[in-house]
Amino acid sequence: MFLNWLSKTIESEKIDILLVAGDIFDTGMPSNQAQKLYYSFLCRIANSSCCNHVVITAGNHDSPTFLTAPEHILNALNVHVIGVLPDSIKDEVLLLDNKDQTEQIIVCAVPYLRERDIRTSEAGENIDDKNKKVVEGIKNHYAEVCRIAEEKRVKLKLKKSTPIVAMGHLFAVGGKTVDNDGVREMYVGTLAHISKDVFPKNIDYMALGHLHVPQKVKDCDYMRYCGSPLPIGFGEAKQDKKVCLIEFSEGKRVVNEISVPVFRKLEQLSGNLEEILSRLKTLKLEEANTLLEIEYCGDEIAGNLRTSLDDAVVDTKMEILRIKNQRIVEKILNNDVVEDSLDDLTENEIFERCLDVYEVPNSQRGSLIATYKEILMVVHEDDKNAE
User: Fold this and answer.
1) Pick from 122, 114, 85: nearest CA to 188
2) Which residues, in sequence order, are CB contacts of 328 under 8 Å at separation 6+?
3) Less packed terminus of the chain by CB within 10 Å, N or C?
4) Phi, psi at residue 384, to the nearest 5°?
5) Residue pLDDT, tens place only, 50-80
6) How many CA atoms lie within 13 A of 14 on its CB side?
7) Which residues of 41-70 are buried (b: 16+ CB within 10 A; e: fewer)?
8) Half-sphere exposure of 42 (CA within 13 A, CB side)
9) What is the pLDDT of residues 248-281, one digit of tens each?
């Protein structure tokens, strides 16, 4: 539904170029259905009356090799995919035009920068040394692509007003997140330190991906996250999702936000069984097409809770994704027996519990946790689709 809406919006707003700064998929191995939606959308945009180019860069959840595999076919559709750092950094700098070839724009299509792409390891390094190198590597990379963009603008004798737009997939300083939004630390201890000063001054607009909440970077109007187009978790249920529309005219930049319609509501219900069933009845009468997370907080232990709730949504458009039985949790806690599901624990929490089991002293935990996070990062960045 979102892709249909976006296609119509591109037509109605007469968009010349679509930029997508990762994550295209939420996994390195998307389903056949997800791939069908993706390629069908790209074909639809390629056949639009106005949009002449689509630029796609990989995010931390994407498989770079999967995205770039059909690049030659996609190039024929004016779809430019940068999944990994190319052999030549010049290939990240794209000169694009509109359908009438009357206006140009330079796009620095920088994908998610993996640590191994931007720094070299040296013996005896501590965590602070590694962090500084990552930040410096990101800064140097953007400095080089923007230098090439500026050089291209002069060499091709383009108008001085020809805008330079950069893309990125990272965590800028001060970025807002919400609980359970799936945003992972991508560099150990450094992502919160990628300030707007890292990026060159000649960037006319910075299109950022990774954070789900629509926001500016330190109130900078031309550095923005549009955020995820759909709520990724119930913590985002009340967010106003947006896409960013940027217009350039004679050296002037205007940034507008377009709200994305709510295609399917998310709702969290909490209370005793009577209160929950009453709300479900109301939603049923409204013929609500809602995804639900339910927390039971009644005084009595409801052993048949799942059955009662499932029966309440039979023959409706509603779907229960998760049920939390707070009464049973409290009973277990009172008995001093806690059996957490792995689904309820983060990778870091599991590791910290291992440290507790082995009674590792606090003086050693900092370095162990930092090393563990580095290992996690390598695992997450491994491209399982690569040869």
Assistant:
1) 114
2) 301
3) C
4) -70, -15
5) 999 999 999 988 999 999 999 999 999 999 9
6) 4
7) bbebbbebebbbbbbbbbbbbbbbbbbbee
8) 24
9) 998 899 999 999 999 999 999 999 999 999 999 9
